[in-house]
Design a protein that fits this description.
By secondary structure, the protein is of the alpha/beta class. The protein has 14 helices and twelve strands. The longest helix has 21 residues. It binds nicotinamide-adenine-dinucleotide and thymidine-5'-diphosphate.
Amino acid sequence: MSDRKLKNILVTGGCGFIGSNFINYMFGQSATGSREFMDSGFDGRIVNVDCLTYAGNPDNLSGVQKAFGGTRYFFEKADICDRSAIERIFKQYDIDTVIHFAAESHVDRSILGPEAFIKTNIMGTYTLLDVARKFWNVSLDNQRDDVLFHHISTDEVYGSLGETGYFTETTPYDPRSPYSASKASSDHIVMAYYHTYGLPITLSNCTNNYGPYQFPEKLIPLMILNMQEGKNLPVYGEGKNIRDWIYVEDHNRAVWQIVKDGITGQKYNIGGENEWQNIKLLDKLIELTAKEAGLNADDVRKTIVHVKDRPGHDARYAIDCAKIKKELGWERKMTFEEGLTLTVKWYLSHKEWIERVQSGEYLKWIDSNYAGRK
Ligand code: NAD
Ligand code: TYD
């Protein structure tokens, strides 16, 4: 047991995919009804800071807002790069813990326009770290164990694996895309604040998440919706790239466990131990979606189109998560079959959410960048 207060938690990016699932989890609200995951035991307050980019949607938290808004849950629309807004929020809510999800998160977007990634992922993380350091008045001579800054990162910072081997916490960083380079940079700055200024931090690097509320630009929701709408299924290159998939609630339980009991200054890898070649995953997804949506799987398979490969496309990601299992007793609970089925059902039954996120800015972006691919 740590001495952390964990009373007034600042969650950044809480309107995005993982962040909104995290806040729902903390307040016992399950998007998919998988109640066995709702055991956070949290009894404090959460302040959600999100500037609502195309990927942020406050509706993801309507249940939490209704039940806890103004008492234990507060939403602040602000940019993490806006130092004065972040300073004001730290003071107003007497923040003792930061759980930092906010980021530009999509690799393809980072290839088309890296600037927002550099700003949010690097400058935004720096701004939060620096405000936390000053607000908590920490230094190497004045270390504190009652406050914590937890940084959420990705396995993509480690680069690309060959056919064998796993990323461990000591694998050297070797990012390839503007997204992973900006996340790698933010990880280094977080560690620098620990070593140089004594800021109490923990850091986690996770594999590919899937589940409800993921913006339909990422592989799994994009494919489910394209199938439902009768559109082509664009596979980059041969589709042989491998990703390790984890259900979002398993990731979020791990994050909460690290925040509660992780050792200050340490990083933890989180993985699903669930590697899939993209093309094989798509086959599985076609089988499940066709069944749930009443489609003919063989007809759907005919809509697979191999499109131009992503530049610098990492071949394989796979995480060794022995450390968090051994030291914190964390374990993945969701099987892929069950998690994917819940996810497919969720996307097929949330038409209104999908229409909203697919309108406006998103559609304009897709039209201008991806029209030729579909
Ligand atoms: P997302 O794109 O769905 O959500 C990001 C959220 O951050 C959005 O609500 C957005 O409005 C907000 N945001 C963006 N820029 C902001 C800014 N400048 N100020 C305030 N808010 C801002 O992303 P996600 O998939 O939920 O990822 C969350 C975190 O988890 C990221 O740090 C990402 O790098 C990391 N991660 C994601 C995955 C994955 O598979 N999605 C895997 C490992 C790690
Ligand atoms: P993605 O969901 O974008 O996650 P990441 O790039 O962060 O791993 O993509 C997952 C894999 O699927 C990746 O290898 C790229 C591939 N992919 C496609 O083949 N087609 C698509 O339309 C998308 C979005 C991704």
